[in-house]
Amino acid sequence: MSRWRTTSRSNTAVRVIVGVGALFAFIELLYMVMVLAGANAGNGFFIFIQSLAGPLALFWPGLFPVNDPNFQVILDYGLAAAFWVILAGVIARIAAR
């Protein structure tokens, strides 16, 4: 084995896990920003991101009901994004052992 090799299979797995978690969180945050900015709901890109963000939000939408629709979007999809980052970190830490 080369002395210059600094990565191992476990490091690669950890990077993939963290990358997937970051991608899921990015999709949630992108959808949240698009809704708050008033993006055209009939646009194909918006519909595509919405179709990804909905299932990725899991159980978060509607968990904490509030009266303000903008705050509801922030709460629902912001918590989902934080969930994916934390979950990916925990799984990556376990995989690194």
Number of structural domains:
1
Spatial gap, N to C terminus: 21 Å
Shape descriptor reads elongated
- How many β strands by DSSP? 0
What Rg, in angstroms, do the CA atoms define?
Answer: 17 Å
Structural class: mainly alpha
Strand content: under 5%
The poorly predicted ranges are none
- Helical content, roughly? over 70%
- Average of the residue pLDDT scores: 89
The H/E string reads HHH
Largest sheet: none
Number of helices: 3
Keywords: Membrane, Transmembrane, Transmembrane helix
Protein name: YggT family protein
SSE layout:
Elements: H1 9-36, H2 44-56, H3 69-95
Helix pairs in contact: 1-2, 1-3
Describe the structure.
This protein has one domain (12-96). It starts with 8 loop residues before the first helix and ends with a helix. The chain has helices at 9-36, 44-56, 69-95. Helix 1 crosses helix 2 and helix 1 packs antiparallel against helix 3 (69-95). The chain has 97 residues and is mainly α. The model has no long low-confidence stretch (mean pLDDT 89). This is YggT family protein.
Brief overview, please?
The chain is built from three helices and no strands. It is mostly helical.
Relevant terms:
3 helices
